[in-house]
Every structure is written in structure tokens, then in C-alpha cells.
Amino acid sequence: MPQVEEVRLDRVFNALSNPVRRQIVHRLKAGEASVSEIVVPFSISQPAISRHLRVLEDAGLIVRSKCAQKTMCKMSPRPLKEVSDWVDNFREYWETKLERLDTYLAQIEQETK
């Protein structure tokens, strides 16, 4: 059975795998917006945007709230931090590999001179 952290990461990666959802997250980085404001730049229906918002909300990337007759959305950055931390675990590995490749290429260049 997957660990809770893995399930959360799976939901975030799934949510971010769609370009429309990534654009929504990018838009909400600038601040809270209503669903009707979010739908404006897209050539898809409001119900389709609402489905995308549901996926983002299930992943914890956004929070929706009611304000009078509007549904407002705001970004929740914690899941992005968790993804960043997960990726950082691999940064040292790849930096070491790339440094070794640089050293190897420099050695080959010296040998060919």
C-alpha cells in the first residue's frame, strides 16, 4: 500500500500534468480569483473549468470558498513545496553525475590536443 506522502505526490503530479490546470495554478499565483474570472482566457466551458478546479482542489493545490454568489479560488502552495522537496532529493545525484561528465569530457578534450 502506498504511503500517504506518495499518494499526495501522485495527486499533485496528476493535477499538474494537464496544461489547463497548470495555467490555472499560474493564474492563481497572482492572487485569488473567481471561477468566472478563471474561465475567461480559456476556450472551454465553465463546467469543464470546474472539473479542472476539482482536480486541483483534490490535490490540495487550490482552496475554493463561497463569497456571496461567487466561488472564489486561491492557490495553496504547500503541495508545490512538497514536490520541490521531492525533486531536491534528486538534485545532488544529478549534479554529481553532471560534474563527473564534465570532468570526463575535459579529460577527453585534453587527450585529443
What's the overall geometry? elongated
* CATH H level, superfamily name: Winged helix-like DNA-binding domain superfamily/Winged helix DNA-binding domain
Low-confidence stretches: none
**What is the highest CATH level, the class?**
Mainly Alpha
- Would you give the CATH topology? Arc Repressor Mutant, subunit A
Per CATH, the architecture is Orthogonal Bundle
Work out the helicity level: 55-70%
Number of domains: 1
- Spatial order of strands in the largest sheet: 1-3-2
Number of H/I helices: 5
Beta content comes to 5-15%
How many beta-strand elements?
A: 3
Structural features:
alpha+beta, elongated
Q: Overview of this structure, please?
A:
With 113 residues, the chain is α+β, with helices and mostly antiparallel strands. It contains 5 helices and 3 strands. The protein has helices at 4-16, 19-29, 35-39, 46-58, 78-112; strands spanning 33-34, 62-67, 70-75. It has a 3-stranded antiparallel beta sheet with strand order 1-3-2. Helix 1 (4-16) packs across helix 5 (78-112) and helix 2 (19-29) packs across helix 4 (46-58). It is elongated. The termini are far apart. The mean pLDDT is 92.
